[in-house]
Design brief:
The complex is a heterodimer of chains A (about 375) and B (about 500). Chain A is mainly alpha-helical. Chain A folds into 2 domains: about 90 residues, no CATH class; about 260 residues, ABC transporter involved in vitamin B12 uptake, BtuC (Orthogonal Bundle), CATH 1.10.3470. Chain A is built from 16 helices and no strands. In chain A, helix 8 crosses helix 9, helix 9 crosses helix 11 and helix 14 packs antiparallel against helix 15. The longest helix of chain A is centred in the middle third of the chain and has 30 residues. Chain A is globular and about 65 Å long. The two termini of chain A are about 30 Å apart. Chain B folds into 2 domains: about 240 residues, 3-Layer(aba) Sandwich (Rossmann fold), CATH 3.40.50; about 250 residues, Rossmann fold, CATH 3.40.50. Helix content of chain B is about 30%, strand content about 25%. Chain B is built from 17 helices and 22 strands. In chain B, the strands form 5 sheets. In chain B, strands 6-7-8-3-9-10 form a 6-stranded mixed sheet, sandwiched between helices. Chain B has a 6-stranded mixed sheet with strand order 16-19-20-13-21-22, sandwiched between helices. In chain B, strand 21 and strand 22 form a beta hairpin. The radius of gyration of chain B is 25 Å and the shape is globular. Classes of the chains: A mainly alpha (about 375), B alpha/beta (about 500). At the A-B interface, helix 9 and helix 10 of A face helix 1, helix 10, helix 11 and strand 18 of B.
Chain lengths: ~375, ~500
């Protein structure tokens, strides 16, 4: 007999527990703010206001959210197949090449709505290519995916350094970036979407790739829970022995999964390159790949969890920037501490409050202890 | 001093809605071997976990030697003189026997003094109970039977007077099990009290003094072993009359369906596990492979079903070759009419985290009837699962329930339904009733015989000799990777046992 771990109702499992974890993370963050001699309440105000106070702030929050949805989905897809892809960072970086090439080639001849699909294909292609090599090494040579993808992040960084220096940089320019794209390489902002709610997007780079992120989230759900490929990926992820028994081609599934994961990572590059800067800059990924790991963990690798988790991190990024702007004694590093605490409580210490919450919830309503586990339905 | 080593009064324990133990009363007399039997999920393990301090009872008292004790955790249980040998051993694999026995009872930060003391104590225990173990052997290099002995020594080292053994023979060979029983007898003679949890009725009859039967969380009866019978105990366990030996008619063997010639399989270290094995199976017969676990049966099944690559040999399925030495594809073999119920349903035959309906298509998920264009047709998959649930009486009848939440017997039925319902030409079954309760065993055995009567060829591998003898039309005995003999099911247990032990090797194998 296994240890009976009482099943919580969905609202407690996916609502209450994450909420309690978040509240604790914020309370401890407040203590840290108190220690440096600032008011936690004021910091909280700036955090919330900075993330949601005005249309422009919301625009920035959703801009970051878009980025984190892509990287979160990338990590999640690999998770389902039992692969821990740490290389989302590098794959997103390399994916930028595809976006840049598409824009540099067509921005002066084609409208954005034709360049965008080409850039999507380019971003996916280069992202997938960068994930293919670690995937192949894992599938055919047994090299551990965690090690190879970490290494490939470094290789990607060096490669991009070289390419931006020697290939993409226009003659005579001093900064490591491509030329600025013309109209065809610039994605439209979603001011119409914001204006429905009576808000103005202002200078925020909230662009159409947000809608792509939502569409791709749905696509990932279909892939994982409604296709044969997704079924085989999940079988592999839960039990490689069962997959072999079922005649699932292990090597093939590993390689395909890694390429999909890389393609999703690559699409992240659309948002900053075509949506904000209109050029490819050095280090444009800025750690979003690693945030994707936290987003996927928090969102339990399910698109319906990844979107709110990405929104939370978007809020921390935008609101955090606002805190350090409004309260100079709280540096940027302090924001990293707060983000770290959120990851710690929501991810690593996920089960800390579970026994107590289980006792309380099941004590309140004994009926809910019934086993009713359905997922992805 | 009391007559009773343990007395449980009105023990009650619920997990949410699941009432695992309901007002349990139990008296275990000192210096006896007391059996506790019941089907999977009857509440045996929960009750013992309460006694050993893993859980606390909601109500009820535990009396040890006549005085009430409060067992809050395993340390308290050890202090009260209770030792437990778990079904899955709690040993550190890369430690030596001595280190494992000392673990948690080191007595000081400096190990040296403790080691000397432990070594002397171990010597004494070995002598007293005839439990020979090399104290410096590393655990992972020892056979399971010896590892279990280490567990028993661990409990004795902690001065246990009451020893609880949870399904101790599940992993043992018949010879090892016999040895274990001799040890338990020895312990009893030295005045220790032994509680034996099992679902194997034969063991209960062979070794216990008294036996208590649990069913659905309740203690339904306690009997003196000499005054009861296997039939009565089975009936008490299941709550109805059980057929312990299935009825079956004469086999009508027809054409050869599966033909294995000179099959040799090596494991990843290059050790030969299956050594030049040849046999045929005809339509309409069940061929059983008897043998002690680890003599190549698993590898044989895996090679035939295309999971493991063979080193050499040929296998013909309905007359055409299977590429066993190359890339035999399990999915393609299924399409050719080879169904496989694997030995390990938890890790191979099922994905425990999947919904029931998702497991009902595992390996057959390629079938176009589960597809709607590019997507999986979830409705068709669930409808199909529901049909199988009805046909095989799988409980609870919910295709959306997570597979891990089904009992062992029902999980096995999920696998059997999947593999049998398509009417394969050849059915390969490994350990069809391992960890399955008595009621389900009867059902599964009937189904296997039905397959035979429909003219299918069945290859059966089981470590339960009773099962092999009850079902097979011919018995092949495997030892050290070779088939060392063929017998009819009428052959005596002793004769088969000798073959299984490799005592009576084939003449031609003389080297």
């Amino acid at each position: 007999m296994s240890v009976p771990y009482a099943k919580l109702p969905a609202w407690a499992e996916y609502g209450l527990i994450p909420l309690v974890n978040l509240v604790v993370a914020f309370l401890i963050s407040g203590l840290v703010v108190l220690i440096v001699g600032e008011s936690p309440l004021e910091a909280a105000y700036h955090m919330i206001n900075g993330a949601f106070g005005r249309g422009e702030y919301i625009g920035f929050t959703l801009y970051y959210t878009t980025t984190f949805i892509f990287t979160g989905l990338s990590v999640a897809v690999a998770f389902h197949c039992g692969l821990f892809n740490i290389g989302t960072e590098g794959q997103a970086y390399i994916g930028g090449i595809g976006v840049a090439l598409a824009c540099l080639a067509f921005d002066r001849t084609l409208p954005w709505y034709l360049v965008f699909p080409i850039a999507i294909v380019g971003a996916s292609f280069f992202g997938a290519l960068w994930a293919l090599i670690p995937g192949w090494l894992q599938a055919k040579r047994g090299s551990h995916i965690v090690i190879t993808t970490i290494m490939f992040n470094f290789i990607a960084a060096s490669l991009m350094n070289y390419l931006l220096n020697k290939v993409f940089k226009p003659l005579g320019s001093m900064s490591l970036e491509t030329r600025t794209f013309d109209a065809g390489g610039q994605l439209p902002k979603l001011d119409w979407l914001m204006s429905i709610f009576g808000l103005s997007v202002g200078s925020a780079p909230f662009n159409i790739s947000f809608l792509l992120a939502l569409l791709v989230s749905f696509g990932v759900w279909v892939l994982i829970w409604r296709t044969k490929l997704g079924y085989e990926m999940r079988t592999m992820g839960h039990s490689p022995a069962a997959a072999r028994y079922a005649g699932i081609k292990e090597a093939k599934i590993i390689i395909i999964t890694m390429m999909l994961s890389g393609a999703l990572a690559g699409m992240m590059a659309l948002n900053p390159i075509m949506g904000e800067q209109f050029r490819m800059q050095l280090d444009f990924v800025q750690g979003a790949g690693f945030v994707g790991i936290a987003v996927a963990l928090m969102g339990r690798s399910h698109p319906a969890g990844i979107i709110p988790a990405a929104l939370l991190f978007g809020m921390l990024y935008q609101g955090g920037a606002e805190i350090s702007f409004e309260m100079p004694s709280i540096s940027r590093d302090m924001i990293v501490i707060i983000q770290g605490l959120v990851i710690l409580f929501a991810g690593a210490l996920e089960h800390m409050f579970r026994p107590a919450i289980t006792r309380i919830v099941l004590g309140l309503s004994p009926k809910t202890s019934d086993v009713a586990a359905t997922k992805g339905a | 001093m009391s007559e009773l080593a343990i007395e449980l009064k009105g023990i009650d324990k619920s997990f949410g809605l699941v009432h695992a133990n309901r007002n349990i009363n139990l008296k275990v007399r000192k210096g006896t071997i007391h059996g506790i039997i019941g089907e999977n999920g009857a509440g045996k393990s929960t009750l013992m976990s309460i006694l050993y301090g893993f859980y606390q009872a909601d109500h009820g008292d535990i009396l040890i030697d006549g005085s009430k004790v409060d067992i809050r955790d395993p340390n308290a249980a050890i202090a009260a003189g209770i030792g437990m040998v778990h079904q899955h051993f709690m040993l550190v694999e890369n430690f030596t026997v001595l280190e494992n026995i000392m673990l948690g009872a080191e007595e000081s930060q400096i190990l040296n003094a403790g080691i000397t003391k432990a070594r002397a104590e171990l010597k004494r225990l070995e002598k007293e109970y005839a439990l020979e173990v090399d104290p410096d052997a590393v655990i992972e290099e020892l056979p399971v039977g010896i590892q279990q002995r280490v567990e028993i020594l661990k409990a004795l080292y902690r001065r246990a007077d009451i020893l609880i053994l949870d399904e101790p023979t599940g992993v043992l060979t018949p010879a090892e099990a016999d040895h274990l029983f001799r040890i338990l007898q020895q312990l009893k003679e030295q005045g220790k009290t032994v509680i034996l949890i099992t679902h194997k009725l034969r063991e209960i009859m062979a070794i216990t003094d008294e036996v208590s039967v649990m069913r659905r969380g309740e203690m339904v009866a306690t009997r003196t072993t000499t005054e009861t019978s296997v039939e009565e105990l089975a009936e008490l366990m299941v709550g109805r009359r059980v057929l312990l030996r299935v009825e079956k008619g004469e086999a009508k063997p027809a054409d050869v369906k599966l033909s294995v010639r000179n099959l040799t399989v090596r494991d990843s270290r290059g050790v030969t596990m299956v050594d030049d094995v040849s046999f045929d199976i005809r339509a309409g017969e069940i061929v059983g492979i008897a043998g002690v676990a680890g003599n190549g049966q698993s590898e044989l099944l895996e090679a035939i079903s295309g999971i493991r690559r063979a080193a050499s040999g040929t296998v013909l399925l309905s007359g055409s070759a299977i590429d066993v030495t190359g890339d035999a594809d399990p999915a393609a073999l299924r399409k050719r009419g080879l169904a496989h119920v694997p030995e390990d349903r938890h890790h191979v035959g099922l994905v425990l985290k999947f919904d029931e309906s998702e497991n009902a298509i595992l390996g057959y998920h390629d079938d176009p009837k589960y597809r709607k264009g590019f997507l999986l047709d979830v409705d068709a998959i669930r409808a199909d699962a529901e049909e199988k649930i009805t046909a095989y009486d799988i409980r609870p009848p919910n295709p959306r329930l997570k597979t891990a939440n089904f009992s062992g017997g029902n999980q096995q039925k999920i696998v059997l339904a999947r593999e049998m319902e398509r009417g394969p030409e050849v059915l390969i079954i490994g350990q069809p009733t391992r960890g399955v309760d008595v009621g389900a065993i009867e059902f599964i055995h009937k189904r296997i015989i039905e397959m035979r009567d429909q003219g299918k060829a069945v290859l059966l591998v089981s470590v339960e000799l009773d099962e092999i003898r009850a079902l097979s039309d011919r018995i092949l005995v495997m030892f050290a990777g070779r088939i060392v003999g063929e017998r009819t099911p009428e052959a005596s247990e002793g004769e088969l046992g000798l073959l299984m032990a490799g005592v009576e090797g084939p003449k031609e194998a003389a080297e």
